[in-house]
Structures are given as structure tokens and as C-alpha cells.
Design a protein that fits this description.
Elements lengths: L5 E3 L12 H15 L13 E5 L2 E5 L3 E3 L4 E5 L7 H5 L17 E5 L13 E5 L7 E2 L2 E3 L2 E3 L22 E5 L3 E2 L2 E3 L2 E3 L3 E9 L2 E3 L2 E5 L1 E15 L2 E4 L4 E6 L1 E7 L2 E2 L5 E6 L5 E3 L2 E4 L5 E4 L6 E3 L2 E5 L20 E4 L4 E3 L2 E5 L13 E9 L2 E3 L2 E5 L12 H10 L10 E5 L3 E2 L2 E3 L7 E2 L6 E3 L9
Parallel strand pairs: 1-2, 2-5, 3-6, 4-7, 5-9, 6-10, 7-11, 8-12, 9-13, 10-14, 11-15, 12-15, 13-16, 14-17, 15-18, 16-18, 17-19, 18-20, 18-21, 19-22, 20-23, 21-24, 22-25, 23-26, 24-27, 25-28, 26-29, 27-30, 28-31, 29-32, 30-33, 31-34, 32-35, 32-36, 33-37, 35-38, 37-39
Bound molecules: ligand 9F3.
């Protein structure tokens, strides 16, 4: 006898998934709840279910509301393609393209854009449950959530498709939860990709979350979670990865490409690790620890900062200048160890004009340990760049340029006077580090030809 706990959205008796998949999924969830009513049948009784979305395009006009544990919603393909490149290509060229829109198991978020409504009203998937225990083991896997378009921000000069604003969220988890998984998903053109409040043992793994205003936001507070192995890149206004009041967050093996106003932004995050990630950005403030972020390990990451090479996006930035710090640290006893940091930028693009860019800047707190960071700062080879070429070739030629570069004078570490008792070892020569040696410990990186 086939299981009743396997549902296919294209084979369900209420609603039409090609008109509104939201109505179909809500009706399936209602069916699961009507059948799984008893909390304890032979030490079981509420196994949840799987809802399958085959490859195809499914508009969502009704928000999906999830309030049951053990629900897995899965498709067969994250289907990402760049909407940013498409919308910055003349529409007359689309007729020759092999495909124009994202694919896979694709949900087209067509929720009405509400002005003045709650933020969560714009979420395709909304998860909330009160009472005990916390809702557990809801899983989203292997499908695409496409926010379709960004909207005019009222400034009058932006292409609406480049604003990264539309009030839409892919997955919004409003109440405390345990052991959720988001994996294999593709999220594109949403103002917020994944927003999670009060996470515990959350895994966000192997997703493609790009061209969203913000990609991952862990809000409220949380513990013991991981963001691993994702390809991520937010718009110039928002966060690629943001976490608030979190303990025990592991951020590892992600490839975080531009733009994002930051790659990692922590507020009050402690005892967490950021390791073995690759970060690429077009602006200062790649990693920001604000408030008090303490006892975190930032290690073995590769940071690369250059100027935006692609013409259509060159008018935009995050508003920070080069004195802000590529890594901005506020807090106590953090370890910033063995990172490689490349910055390549022509002096004419440095702000304020004539400034010496700051790489690692510690603005408050004490006891931070900054050791063995290798900073390579150069002017860029602007002659090889052609901002009018295809997005891919422009970005790749810019990324690969390592010849003909000249050394750029930078401050590798700057310890502001508000921060004391830090240890700075082998992260810059005497001339590259700004530190009060009376209240901090400092050992400079030896310079070839000069006595140690
Ligand atoms: O290179 C990674 C991703 O970047 C693209 C291509 O380039 C874009 C165009 O806006 O610029 C940024 C990256 O430098 C992106 O976020 C964006 O999306 C994806 O097409 C691509 O998947």
C-alpha cells in the first residue's frame, strides 16, 4: 500500500499548482494535520510528511504556513541562473538565449507587494509555532525560490531591477526551532533569502543564495548552527551572512562572492568560527563584528577586495570608505589568525582620496589575538579591464590579473585607542601597523634585507 505521507503537488485534489502552489501546499499540510492527530500512538504518531515539487514553474500567490514538525518540502533542482545579468542585458538579445528564466523545481513568488504590512507577509514560506516542544526538523531541499523582480526605490535614477528591494522573503522562520535544514536550494531576486529567528542546531548547507538583497539572516539569538558549503552573494545594500546574539555558529567552506555590503556581519556573536571560506568583495567592511563580538575564531579564510569591474553595477557601493577596515572588529578575545587578504585597487578609486586603506581595524574591546595574517595589497591592472564586456569575462579577467601590479601602501592592522591589551604578531611590518605599544603586544613581520 503506498504511503499517505508522500505528496506530489502535481497530484493533489485541491487547488492547481500551476496557478497557485501556495494554496496546494497549505491544503496538503491541512491534510497531514487532519490525519496525524494523535501525539502518541505506539511511541509515534506524528511522522510528518514529504511534499514533492517536480521540475516545473509554479507561481505562488498564497503564503505557505508551516506549523508541523518533520515536514520536508523538496524538489529536483535548484535551477539558479543569473537574473542580474539578464536584466542588465538588452531585452532584444533575449530571443537568442537558450533559456531566459531560472529552472529546476521553481517557485515564482507572486505575493502582492504590500506597503506598510509586516515584513513576514512577503515570505513565500512562513514557519511559526508556539508552545512545546519547539518545532523540529522542517526541511527545505533542492528547489528554487525566485522573487522575479526588484522594484523602484523611488530614487529616480536606479534601474528598478538593480535595487535589491521587493519586500519578498524566500523562507521566514519566526519562532524558535530545532534541527531545521535548508539544503540544495536556489534563492534568487528576493529582498531576503532566508530569515531565521532563534535558531538551534540549524544547518544551511550547499545552497545557492545569490542576487538577493540579503542572503542569510540569523536574528534574535541562537546556538550551535552551521552555514557551510554555500555559494552566496547579496546585493550592495544587504548582508550575505548576518548573525545576531549567536553562540556556537560555524561558518565554513562557503564561497561568498560580491556584492553584499558585507560578506559576514556579526552583532553580539560569540564563540563562533569563520574558517576556510573564500570571500570576494567590491567594498570595505567585508567582515564586520559590531556591538561586542567575543572569543570568535577567524582563521584560514581567503579575502579578496577589488573595485567593481562590471559596468552596470559600478554606480553602486556600500558607502564605506577605505579607512573603515576590510575587517572591522569590535569585541574581546577574538582570534584573527592565518588569513590571506588580497586587496587590489587603483589609487584613484580609494576613498577618501589619498587615504591609506586599513585592512584589519580593531575599534574596541581587549585581548584580541591577531597573528600571521598575510596581506597582499596592490594597485589593479586597470588596462586589462573592459567594463563593457560580458559580465563573466569582465569579472574573470579582473580576478585573474596578478601581473604588472604595483605594491599599494596600506595599514595592515590598526588598533584604535579604545582597544587595549591586544596581541599583534607577524601581520605587518613596523610601518604597516598602527598600534600603541604601551598597551598592546606587537611583533612586526620581518622585512627582507632589514635586521629583525
Ligand atoms: O560569480 C558568481 C555569481 O555572480 C553572478 C554574476 O555576476 C553578478 C552580476 O550582478 O555579479 C556578482 C558577482 O560578482 C553577482 O552576485 C552576480 O551574479 C552569477 O551569475 C554567478 O553565479
Amino acid at each position: 500500500m503506498p504511503s499517505q505521507n508522500y505528496y506530489d503537488v502535481t497530484d493533489w485534489n485541491q487547488g492547481n499548482p500551476y496557478e497557485d502552489i501556495g494554496e496546494v501546499i497549505n491544503s496538503i499540510i491541512a491534510d497531514i494535520k487532519s490525519r496525524q492527530t494523535d501525539t502518541n500512538v505506539n511511541q509515534g504518531g506524528k511522522p510528518g510528511a514529504v511534499i514533492y515539487i517536480p521540475p516545473g514553474d509554479y507561481p505562488l500567490l498564497t503564503q505557505v504556513v508551516i506549523d508541523i514538525s518533520y515536514l520536508k518540502i523538496m524538489g529536483s533542482g535548484h535551477g539558479f541562473t543569473s537574473s542580474s545579468i539578464r536584466f542588465n542585458t538588452p531585452e532584444s538579445e533575449w530571443v537568442n538565449w537558450h533559456e531566459v528564466w531560472p529552472g529546476g523545481s521553481r517557485i515564482l513568488v507572486e505575493l502582492p507587494a504590500g506597503v506598510g504590512t509586516k515584513e513576514s507577509d512577503g515570505a513565500a514560506f512562513y514557519v511559526a509555532r508556539s508552545g512545546d516542544p519547539r518545532i523540529s526538523s522542517v526541511e527545505f531541499a533542492d528547489f528554487c525560490i525566485d522573487g522575479l523582480h526588484f522594484v523602484d526605490d523611488g530614487s529616480g535614477n536606479d534601474d528598478p531591477e538593480n535595487t535589491y528591494l521587493n519586500g519578498k522573503t524566500g523562507i521566514y522562520i519566526a519562532s524558535a526551532q530545532d534541527s531545521f535544514r535548508i539544503s540544495g536550494m536556489g534563492l534568487v531576486y528576493l529582498e531576503h533569502g532566508v530569515t531565521v529567528y532563534n535558531a538551534d542546531a540549524l544547518a544551511i548547507h550547499n545552497n545557492f543564495i545569490a542576487e538577493c538583497g540579503n542572503c542569510i539572516e540569523l536574528r534574535g539569538s541562537g546556538q550551535a548552527s552551521k552555514v557551510t558549503d554555500n555559494l552566496i552573494g547579496a546585493g550592495y545594500r544587504g548582508y550575505s551572512i548576518y548573525a545576531q546574539n549567536f553562540g556556537g555558529l560555524l561558518i565554513t567552506a562557503n564561497n561568498i562572492f560580491p556584492r553584499g555590503k558585507s560578506s559576514i556581519h556579526f552583532s553580539g556573536v560569540v564563540r563562533s568560527s569563520v574558517s576556510s571560506n573564500r570571500f570576494h568583495s567590491f567594498y570595505p567592511g567585508m567582515l564586520v563584528f559590531e556591538g561586542s563580538c567575543s572569543e570568535n575564531l577567524v582563521s584560514a579564510n581567503h579575502f579578496f577586495r577589488e573595485r567593481e569591474p562590471w559596468g552596470p553595477m559600478q554606480p553602486y557601493n556600500n558607502g564605506l570608505d577605505d579607512l573603515y577596515g576590510l575587517l572591522f572588529i569590535s569585541g574581546d578575545h577574538n582570534s584573527i589568525i592565518a588569513n590571506h587578504i588580497s586587496e587590489t585597487i587603483d589609487t584613484q578609486y580609494i576613498t577618501p582620496p589619498g587615504a591609506k586603506p586599513v585592512i584589519i581595524r580593531v575599534v574596541s574591546g581587549q585581548g584580541n589575538y591577531i597573528s600571521d595574517n598575510h596581506v597582499v595589497a596592490t594597485t589593479e591592472a586597470s588596462q586589462v579591464q573592459d567594463a563593457t564586456g560580458s559580465c563573466f569575462s569582465t569579472q574573470v579577467s579582473s580576478l585573474l590579473a596578478t601581473q604588472g601590479l604595483q605594491a599599494l601602501d596600506v595599514t595592515t592592522v590598526q588598533i584604535e585607542k579604545e582597544s587595549i591589551q591586544n596581541t599583534i604578531l607577524d601581520s605587518g611590518s613596523d610601518a604597516q601597523v598602527v598600534v600603541d605599544k604601551a598597551v598592546n603586544a606587537f611583533r612586526s613581520t620581518p622585512v627582507p634585507g632589514l635586521p629583525v
